[in-house]
Specification:
Radius of gyration: 19 Å
CATH class: Mainly Beta
Low-confidence stretches: 1-50
Helix content: under 10%
Shape: globular
Number of strands: 28
CATH topology: Neuraminidase
Strand content: 35-45%
Largest sheet: 6 strands, antiparallel
Strand order of the largest sheet: 2-1-25-24-23-22
Distance between the termini: 15 Å
CATH architecture: 6 Propeller
Length: 393
């Protein structure tokens, strides 16, 4: 299996060879979960012991550079059940990421299908609990939020489990970020400075050392087109701003942002206007332009997330079904192949979020640091929803 390294818009070529490894087998729930679905929700009556869940077992069985399908229960929560009759057939279109809650050992996601403005559909909150290997609907409606897809709008404060969901915006006025403390309800909304209102953007949570911020980290919101990253510091309870020279322009959708705890940097960019532009935010709050990526990045282009082991970033899809690794320190993009290539699209494969001739497919990703893998959740219309793990290192 060959890995081709090169820096775009830079000099030098490098290469390395890794031994090919096979794709790990699918692992069934541990033990098989008993699922009941009623009134638009789902629940499991069986839980796995901590550390021996189906997720833990499958991740531990995988070799570096392999993919494996996780047979999670109630995956239709991400499909037609979660769609609630929407036109897309699933609840994860137009989205980039979910988040990992290290306290409850859960993947959390908020989003929605297209409903054509029908009253009563805003943003749905769902979760995957590792202990039961089960997806479920937490709430059909986040109270007061503007109807929206997921985009890059969900973040989590990992030391408390508090969720942050930035609502879809447009026009004038401030941004609204909805918050939900662990075990609580959606309340305590944040309001950002008025000038930085934008439609669909990238957000994340910085957990490491960040100049000018407190020890509990900070919420990041990239306001593409305005040339700023907005930071909310919960320790100071105030907003701060980092300027960066983006190309400018308004009406920009589908930008993404992700933070790597290992590298202690964030990468952001992509979207409709600049699909091949990425930047790196450093811990001293400086912003560096990265070499242009080899494929289009952003919501319904290529998915952006980080590998929790190496700290490098993974860029998947772009309508090319290519998987790339980005080392944010060097700016090197490495094309991954062989067993690292995701299984072909379909019920037993991984969707390219940019799709193909039949239109975009839906895909969200979530780095799982405790298992050392990245989870990819796919859907294609109303046909199927599935869940795969990728172990990069």
């Amino acid at each position: 299996m060959k890995r081709r390294d090169f820096v775009l818009a830079a000099s030098g070529l490098a290469g390395s060879v890794l031994a090919p490894r096979g794709i790990a087998a699918t692992v069934q729930p541990c033990p098989p979960a008993q699922i009941s679905v009623s009134g638009g929700t789902s629940a499991s009556s069986v839980a796995c012991p901590i550390g021996s869940s189906a997720l833990d077992t499958l991740a531990a069985s995988m070799s570096p550079g392999t993919w494996a399908q996780l047979s999670a229960s109630a995956l239709n929560v991400l499909g037609t059940l979660g769609s609630n009759g929407g036109v897309g057939g699933n609840m994860i279109p137009y989205s980039n990421q979910a988040v990992w809650d290290p306290i409850t050992k859960a993947i959390r996601y908020c989003g929605n299908d297209h409903h054509g403005g029908t009253p009563g559909y805003t943003v749905m909150e769902v979760q995957y609990l590792a202990a039961s290997n089960t997806w479920s609907i937490v709430t059909n409606q986040i109270p007061g939020i503007t109807p929206s897809h997921g985009y890059g709008h969900i973040a989590i404060r990992p030391d408390t489990g508090e969720l942050y969901v930035r609502q879809y915006a447009g026009g004038s006025g401030p941004e609204t970020i909805f918050r939900k403390p662990l075990g609580g309800s959606w309340a305590g909304n944040l309001t950002s400075p008025t000038i930085y209102r934008q439609v669909a953007i990238g957000t994340g949570w910085w957990t490491g050392a960040l100049s000018g911020s407190q020890a509990m980290g900070a919420y990041l919101m990239w306001c593409q087109g305005f040339g700023v990253i907005q930071i909310y510091d919960p320790g100071l309870d105030r907003w701060q701003q980092i300027d960066h020279p983006d190309p400018g322009g308004d009406g920009l959708y589908h930008g993404v942002l992700d933070y790597s705890p290992v590298k202690n940097v964030a990468v952001f960019g992509g979207g409709n206007a600049w699909p091949r532009k990425l930047w790196r935010l450093n811990s001293d709050r400086t912003v560096v332009a990265l070499p242009d990526p080899p494929i289009d990045v952003g919501v319904q282009r290529a998915n952006l997330n980080h590998d929790p082991v190496t700290g490098n970033f993974l860029i998947w899809g772009g309508g090319t079904r290519q998987l790339w690794e980005l080392n944010p320190t060097t700016g090197v993009y490495t094309k991954l192949s062989g067993s690292r290539q995701p299984p072909a699209a379909g019920p037993s494969g991984v969707s390219d979020p940019a799709g193909g001739a039949g239109g975009p497919d839906a895909l969200i990703s979530c780095a799982l640091p405790e298992q050392g893998v990245v989870a990819y959740m796919s859907a294609s219309g109303a046909s199927y929803a599935n869940m795969f793990l990728y172990k990069h290192a």
